[in-house]
Specification:
Shape: elongated
Radius of gyration: 23 Å
Largest sheet: 8 strands, mixed
CATH class of the largest domain: Alpha Beta
Number of strands: 17
Number of helices: 11
CATH architecture of the largest domain: Alpha-Beta Barrel
Number of domains: 2
CATH superfamily of the largest domain: Alanine racemase
Structural class: alpha/beta
Strand content: 15-25%
Distance between the termini: 34 Å
Amino acid sequence: MSLPAAARLTIDLDALARNYRQLRDLAPGAEAAPVVKADGYGLGAAQIASRLWAEGARSFFVARLAEGEALRTALGAARPARILVLDGLIPGTEARFKAANLVPVLSSMPQIEAATALAGQGTLECALQVDTGMYRQGLPMEQTKALVQAGDRLSHLKIDLIMSHLGSATLPDDPRNRAQLEAFREVRQMFPEAKASLAASAGIFLGPDYRFDLVRPGISLYGGGPEERPDPRLQAVATFTAPLLAIRHVPAGSTIGYGPSMVVDRPSRVGLVGAGYADGLIRAAKGKSQAWVDGGLCRVLIVTMDLIVIDLEDAEVQVGDWVEFMGRNVALDDLASAAGTVAHECLVRLNRAERIYRGEA
């Protein structure tokens, strides 16, 4: 029998588009600007952004300058998207920003000074990120107030978007959400002519108070639930499957794989699947995650670099059948929970499987 050469990562662009419309409709009146950093969360920024442009998206967020340059090239002159770079303007990269027509998201005084120098005697379009209580990226509130009071410091910067990021949006009842919202409202008053953006994926679901003028859907575009668990309003975009390479019968009391961590307590029928952590599946999920085969779920026993062993029990399978480790039948958030991580990490690790796109890009 001729077996497939590689595991497969199937990306459903129609499901992506449905998720985008769902998130956009939750924030009527606000622009929905997709986050396509880390190569579209590992699923291909060019293909993701191309489809979302067709759905009406006109602004996109990336993390790195190189990501912005690549996205500008992929979209081309026919799709003049507004591309915002979350890293901001790092000194020494000014010419590259200008050449690719990228918008820096400024989050520190050195970045503001670099942007002012780039503007020269003209003006430079930019966004400003303010830290409202997450203590990560963003200009501190005190510095923001001082900057506004010294109006000449901003005279050559066209700040048409102010933004912040919620630290506890996946926990709707966390009081930090309301505290950050109140702080952001104060920031908005300082920049009355700029659009405002506070909500990323989970923030969109917190309600209209958090949505403002622009929302930044990220992980939920790709099927990740806003509370880090499966959400029926969102569809799976990525499906990871791999071929069954062999079937083995293991006596009770036997140890499978390296070391003593997986000992079977009964005679077992197991399957060897052609994928592993070199493909991006997380080793820590062994013994806790599940796979879908023959119309049902079975337990993942071990994860090694190139092979996964699953407990087939009574599954009617044969060598060459496909096993799903993530997709419509094995939710992205459930896989993340089993691995002790978040959906974002599960997606961006998928780096070796053959990519197959379904739906128009």
